Every structure is written in structure tokens, then in C-alpha cells.
């Protein structure tokens, strides 16, 4: 709103906080600094691959380190995963295809993913 007589806006007045409001504000700020917020960027994507030629490749997300739990076991040999469809793709031994890429097999089961850089209490993406 705009005051026609003085030419000043109603929102130009300085903010006055009572002592009770200051205490509530300080408490809410201390709570925010102690507990990290869970946002969409805190959980890995639904589908991610380590092959740069894949449309699901994302170097920035892979740099953070993604942990994968498949059927209750933490796996470190996952080439690609999809949480919503419930599968992981892992390398099948040392076998290579004719282009020099590792042969992979698709395993079905429950998949959970999290960013390892957030520590042990990181939010987990699962179905």
C-alpha cells in the first residue's frame, strides 16, 4: 500500500520485534542450523548410470558419491540403477562386449540410494 499524503509506502516502516518474537525467531534459527533440511537435492535421482554415453549419466551427482543398497545388502559394483522399477545393473565378471564395454546383467529387487557425502544419517531414496 502507498500513502498518498506522505508518499511513503506502508511497508517502509522499520520492523519492530517484541522480546517474545525475538526469542521465537532466535529459537527457530538455532533449530535450522542444527538440523539440515531435506530437499530434493539431498536424495539421489530415481535412475542413474555411470556410463557417460547413457542418457541417465550425471557427473555432478556421481561426484558426491552414491551409496546403493540392493535387497538389504550394500553394493559397490552397480553400473546403473532404477529405484522405481526395482532393478540394478552389475558387471558380469570380466567379460567385455565387442566395443570393450563390460557386459552387465540386470538384477530385480528393492533398491535404496543415498548420497554418501551427507554422512550416516543421510536421507534414503526408496519406493
TrEMBL record:
UniProt-listed Pfam families: DUF3297 (PF11730)
UniProt biased composition (Polar residues): 31-41
Positions of region (Disordered): 29-49
InterPro entries: DUF3297
Highest rank taxon of the organism: Bacteria
The protein's name in its UniProt record: Glutathione peroxidase
Amino acid at each position: 500500500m502507498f500513502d498518498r499524503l506522505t508518499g511513503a509506502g506502508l511497508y517502509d516502516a522499520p520492523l519492530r520485534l517484541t522480546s517474545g518474537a525475538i526469542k521465537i525467531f532466535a529459537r527457530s534459527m538455532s533449530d535450522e542450523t542444527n538440523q539440515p533440511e531435506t530437499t530434493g537435492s539431498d536424495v539421489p535421482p530415481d535412475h542413474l548410470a555411470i556410463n557417460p554415453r547413457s542418457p541417465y549419466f550425471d557427473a555432478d551427482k556421481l561426484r558426491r558419491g552414491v551409496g546403493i543398497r540392493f535387497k538389504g545388502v550394500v553394493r559397490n559394483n552397480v553400473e546403473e540403477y532404477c529405484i522405481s522399477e526395482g532393478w540394478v545393473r552389475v558387471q558380469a565378471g570380466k567379460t567385455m562386449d565387442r566395443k570393450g564395454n563390460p557386459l552387465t546383467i540386470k538384477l530385480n529387487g528393492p533398491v535404496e540410494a543415498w548420497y554418501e557425502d551427507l554422512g550416516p544419517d543421510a536421507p534414503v531414496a526408496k519406493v
